[in-house]
Amino acid sequence: MRYFTNYLTIMYPEYLLLSADGDLVFIGHYGLFAEAMKSIFGIKESYNIPPNPTRSYAVDGEYVAGLVKKMRPNTVGIVGFSELSAAFYQKFLDIMQAQGVGVADATDLVEEIRVVKSEEEIRLIRKCAAITDAAVEECIRVLKPGIKERDVLVAVDRVVEEMGSEEQYYMIGSAPPGERLPHYCINLANRTIQKGDVVRILVEISGPGGYYTEIGRMFCLGPIPQPLKDHYDVLLEAHRKAVEKLKPGVKMSEVHRACVSVLDEAGFPRLTALYGHGQGLDVVEKPFIDPEDQHVVRVGMNVAVHPSAASDKATAFFCDNYVVTESGAERLQKTPQEIMTV
């Protein structure tokens, strides 16, 4: 929805029909939103699904199918297939099949277009990266013994929203030296930070215009423990090896291999999560730093790189974004890639 219209979907599912001749049709749940699509975003046809007390999205499926039938298509491609409710899809599919209309998953078709960012998109991504740098500055300002983890995130949220951030995801974890760090969302971030603690924070936000970047950094409220220093040195090398491979023509699986080879040699366990991924209008997009990803690195990709090195003695972590250029990867954040003492 955002990619085609610049409209940010909120609260309830909304739908967009794109015909073969390029006309757009918006279907929402509130009359005000439908009118906004006409007056602000230039959509010629806009519809409001009537109130549905049962909140069954089968009603949505029937309504959208009714509009699609009027277009007389042979085949309908669905983008964002995995985000549809089962009730919507089943009702929509039943009606389409009864009309002899084929239904296909067209998500990959659009996602492959979105993988490479335009100059305008990269400009917005750079703005967002600058806001994440400011988020780290705020962490440094407020981190002190006695503050709760959630209050750190609240302070960061105030700063990034004042700078124009549209959507935000945060994670934080703190522990005494020598312990593995948790990584909690704000609803579980209730620990009071103590003198000598190690803290890690991840800020994933969209900036003005809706494009995402993320930054992760570690902080020590006292001397940096030696095990953490040792883990971090290995992590820096793994991160550097991944970034060296982020250049046009290299497969993402090779980026992954370059990164994990350093961690493997040092004896760190493999992550069950991604080691990095693309970002754009979604916080996680293709391509992925993953052994199975066969995407070839291309100029204009925006990739967040975030391996980690963890043991029972310490957890080392940081994250930055890189835009791929003809000569390699350009780091967008300006914050030093180091453990910070506060």
Q: Can you give a write-up of this model?
A:
There is one protein chain. The protein has two domains: 2-114, 3-Layer(aba) Sandwich (Creatine Amidinohydrolase, Chain A, domain 1), CATH 3.40.350; 119-341, Creatinase/methionine aminopeptidase superfamily (Creatine Amidinohydrolase, Alpha-Beta Complex). The two termini are 42 Å apart. The chain is built from nine helices and 16 strands. 35% of the residues lie in helices and 23% in strands.
The poorly predicted ranges are: none
**DSSP strand tally:** 16
What is the third-level CATH name, the topology of the largest domain?
Answer: Creatine Amidinohydrolase
Ends: how far apart? 42 Å
Provide the β-strand percentage band: 15-25%
Q: Summarize the biggest pleated sheet.
A: 5 strands, antiparallel
Question: How would you sum up this structure in a few lines?
Answer:
The chain has 342 residues and is an alpha+beta fold.
Can you lay out the helices and strands and say which pair or pack?
Blueprint: H1 2-5, E1 15-18, E2 24-28, H2 31-39, E3 45-48, H3 58-71, E4 75-78, H4 86-98, E5 102-105, H5 107-114, H6 119-142, H7 149-162, E6 167-175, E7 198-206, E8 212-220, H8 226-245, H9 252-265, E9 276-278, E10 285-288, E11 302-305, E12 308-310, E13 315-317, E14 320-325, E15 328-331, E16 340-341
Parallel strand pairs: 2-3, 4-5, 8-16
Antiparallel strand pairs: 1-2, 6-7, 7-8, 9-10, 9-11, 11-14, 12-13, 14-15
Helix pairs in contact: 3-4, 6-7, 8-9
